[in-house]
C-alpha cells in the first residue's frame, strides 16, 4: 500500500467495523464496489467484542449456574459438594466465542473484496480521509463514505470511572472474579441484564435508578415479572434516587444517594457500575473538515437512506438518533450500501424489535397498548400466559405472557410483546407479522406446532377474536 502524500483511491471508505460497518462493507463488495473498511480496534465493534456478545455470554453462563440449585425438582441430583463459578474460565470461553465470530466477520469481508485497515481515521476534507496506523499515516480519496463509529458509555459529571472499582459496561466484563457486592447506577436494560447475571452468581446487587421505575423505556406491565424475579434473587432496587457522587475508600465504592424526597444515603459496595446510557462517537473523526452537521447531542442527522448533509457521505447505527441496537445498525448499513450503488433502498420501517435479556426476557415490536390509544386507535388486545402453555410448564418456565395489540376497526396488528422464556427468539414472528401488515386472523389461523412456546401467539390472537381455546375469553 502506498504511504505518504499519495492517496489511495477507492469507491467507498467505511469508518467502523461493527455490525453496521461490516454489513455495509460486505453488501458493497457484493455490488462490485471497491471498499476500504477502517477499524481502530477489533472487527465486530463494541457489540461483538465488549457489548452484546460478551454480556449475553455472561448472562447465559450465570443462568446455567443458577439452574443447578433447581435441578433436584426435575429428579437430577448432583454429587455432594458446592459448585462454583470461575470468572477466569468464563473469560477464556468468552474470548474463544468472540475470536470465532471475529474471524468469521473478517473472512466474509475479505471474501467480498473488502480491504481492512486497522487504525484511527479522520476526515481531511469531504473526499479525503487519513488513517494513523502503527506510526504511519495513510491517505485515501473516496467517492462515498459511511460513518459507523458507534457509541461509548456515557459517564455524566461529577461521576467517573477508574476501571478497577468504579466500572463501565466494558470494565465489568473484564473482572477476574465475581464481586461480593455491586452497586449499579442506572436501571435500564444494560444495568438490569448485568445486575441479574451477577445476582445469579451470588453477588449482592443494588440497582439505583433516577426514574420512578426500572426499564422505563418499556411499558410498566411488561416489567412486573422482572421486578419480582429481581427481588427473588435478593437484588435491592432503589428508584426515584439520584447518585450525587461516588468515591473509593479502602478499595470499596462509596455511593452517595439522594432520594426524590431529599433523603440521603451512602451505600458501600465492592464495585460500582455506571450504566446510565451511551453517547455517539462523533467527536474525534474530523466531521468539521468534512462539512458534516451534528445536532446538539452529537448525533448526525440523516435521511431514510442514511445520507448526511454531505450527500455522498452516510452515517449509520449509534451515530444517528434512534434505538442503539446492532440489528438496526446492520439494516442501515445495507440500506446505505445499496443507495450508494444506485439501488432503490430505504430504512423506512417502524418495526425495529427490542430485546431485553433479563430474567424473564422482554421483547417487543410495534406499538404498546398505551401508544396505540395515544395515536387514536380503537384498540383490542389479549395476552396469553406462559403458565397456560404446555411447553413452558414442562421446562419450568411458567412466568410471563405473550400480548397482541390490534386495531379494533381493521383487525390489523399494531404491536406484539412478550415477557418470558426465549422471548428474544419468539419476537421474530411478531416482526414478520407486522412487516407483512398481517391481520389478527392471519396469526390466529396459522397452525403453530405443539408443544412449543410459539403457540402463545396463536392463543393471544384467538383471544382478541374471542375464541381462545386454552384460556377464558374476555372483552377489553
Description:
It catalyses: N(6)-[(R)-dihydrolipoyl]-L-lysyl-[protein] + NAD(+) = N(6)-[(R)-lipoyl]-L-lysyl-[protein] + NADH + H(+). It comes from Brevibacillus invocatus. FAD binds at residues 56, 149-151, 318. InterPro entries: Class-I_Pyr_Nuc-Dis_Oxidored, FAD/NAD-bd_sf, FAD/NAD-binding_dom, FAD/NAD-linked_Rdtase_dimer_sf, Lipoamide_DH, Pyr_nuc-diS_OxRdtase, Pyr_nucl-diS_OxRdtase_dimer, Pyr_OxRdtase_I_AS. Keywords: Disulfide bond, FAD, Flavoprotein, NAD, Nucleotide-binding, Oxidoreductase, Redox-active center. There is one protein chain. The chain is α/β, with parallel strands linked by helices and 476 residues long. It folds into three domains: 8-152 and 280-340, FAD/NAD(P)-binding domain, CATH 3.50.50; 166-276, FAD/NAD(P)-binding domain (3-Layer(bba) Sandwich), CATH 3.50.50.60; 360-465, 2-Layer Sandwich (Enolase-like, domain 1). Helix content is 30%, strand content 25%. The protein contains 13 helices and 22 strands. It has helices at 19-30, 45-49, 52-67, 87-111, 189-200, 220-232, 287-290, 326-340, 369-374, 390-394, 423-435, 440-444, 455-465, and strands spanning 8-15, 35-39, 114-118, 120-123, 128-133, 136-147, 151-153, 166-167, 181-185, 204-208, 236-238, 241-249, 252-259, 264-269, 271-274, 278-280, 313-315, 354-356, 362-366, 379-385, 401-407, 413-419. Strands 1, 2, 3, 4, 5, 6 and 17 form a seven-stranded mixed sheet that branches. A five-stranded parallel sheet has the order 8-15-9-10-11, with helices on one face. The protein has a five-stranded antiparallel sheet with strand order 18-19-22-21-20, sandwiched between helices.
Amino acid at each position: 500500500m502506498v504511504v505518504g502524500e499519495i492517496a489511495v483511491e477507492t469507491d467507498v471508505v467505511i469508518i467502523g467495523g461493527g455490525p453496521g460497518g461490516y454489513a455495509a462493507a460486505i453488501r458493497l463488495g457484493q455490488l462490485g464496489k471497491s471498499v476500504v473498511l477502517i477499524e481502530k480496534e477489533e472487527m465486530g465493534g463494541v457489540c461483538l467484542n465488549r457489548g452484546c456478545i460478551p454480556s449475553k455470554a455472561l448472562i447465559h453462563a450465570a443462568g446455567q449456574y443458577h439452574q443447578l440449585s433447581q435441578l433436584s425438582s426435575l429428579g437430577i441430583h448432583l454429587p455432594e459438594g458446592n459448585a462454583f463459578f470461575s470468572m477466569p474460565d468464563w473469560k477464556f470461553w468468552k474470548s474463544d466465542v468472540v475470536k470465532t465470530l471475529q474471524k468469521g466477520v473478517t473472512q466474509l469481508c475479505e471474501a467480498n473484496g473488502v480491504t481492512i485497515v486497522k487504525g484511527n481515521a479522520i476526515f481531511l476534507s469531504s473526499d479525503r480521509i487519513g488513517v494513523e496506523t502503527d506510526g504511519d499515516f495513510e491517505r485515501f480519496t473516496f467517492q462515498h463514505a459511511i460513518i459507523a463509529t458507534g457509541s461509548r458509555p456515557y459517564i455524566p459529571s461529577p461521576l467517573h470511572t477508574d476501571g478497577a472499582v468504579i466500572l463501565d459496561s466494558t470494565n465489568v466484563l473484564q473482572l477476574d472474579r465475581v464481586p461480593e457486592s455491586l452497586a449499579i447506577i442506572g436501571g435500564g436494560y444494560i444495568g438490569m441484564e448485568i445486575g441479574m447475571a451477577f445476582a445469579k452468581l451470588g453477588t449482592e446487587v443494588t440497582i439505583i435508578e433516577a426514574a420512578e421505575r426500572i426499564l422505563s423505556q418499556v411499558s410498566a406491565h411488561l416489567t412486573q415479572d422482572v421486578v419480582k424475579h429481581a427481588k427473588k434473587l435478593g437484588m435491592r432496587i432503589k428508584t426515584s434516587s439520584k447518585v450525587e457522587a461516588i468515591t473509593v475508600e479502602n478499595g470499596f465504592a462509596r455511593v452517595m444517594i439522594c432520594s426524590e424526597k431529599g433523603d440521603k444515603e451512602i451505600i458501600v459496595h465492592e464495585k460500582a457500575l455506571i450504566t446510565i446510557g451511551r453517547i455517539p462517537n462523533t467527536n474525534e473523526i474530523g466531521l468539521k473538515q468534512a462539512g458534516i452537521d451534528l445536532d446538539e447531542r452529537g448525533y448526525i442527522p440523516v435521511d431514510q437512506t442514511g445520507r448526511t448533509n454531505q450527500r455522498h457521505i452516510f452515517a449509520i447505527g449509534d451515530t444517528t438518533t434512534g434505538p442503539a441496537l446492532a440489528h438496526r445498525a446492520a439494516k442501515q448499513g445495507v440500506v446505505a450500501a445499496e443507495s450508494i450503488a444506485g439501488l432503490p433502498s430505504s430504512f423506512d420501517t417502524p418495526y425495529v424489535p427490542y430485546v431485553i435479556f433479563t430474567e424473564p426476557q422482554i421483547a417487543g415490536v410495534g406499538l404498546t397498548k398505551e401508544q396505540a390509544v395515544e395515536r387514536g386507535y380503537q384498540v383490542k388486545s389479549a395476552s396469553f400466559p406462559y403458565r397456560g402453555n404446555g411447553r413452558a410448564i414442562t421446562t419450568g418456565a411458567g412466568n410471563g405472557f405473550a400480548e397482541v395489540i390490534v386495531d379494533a376497526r381493521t383487525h390489523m396488528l399494531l404491536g406484539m410483546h412478550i415477557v418470558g422464556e426465549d422471548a428474544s427468539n419468539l419476537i421474530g414472528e411478531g416482526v414478520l407479522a407486522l412487516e407483512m401488515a398481517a391481520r389478527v386472523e392471519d396469526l390466529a389461523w396459522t397452525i403453530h406446532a405443539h408443544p412449543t412456546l410459539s403457540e402463545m401467539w396463536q392463543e393471544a390472537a384467538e383471544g382478541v377474536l374471542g375464541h381462545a381455546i386454552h384460556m377464558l375469553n374476555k372483552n377489553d
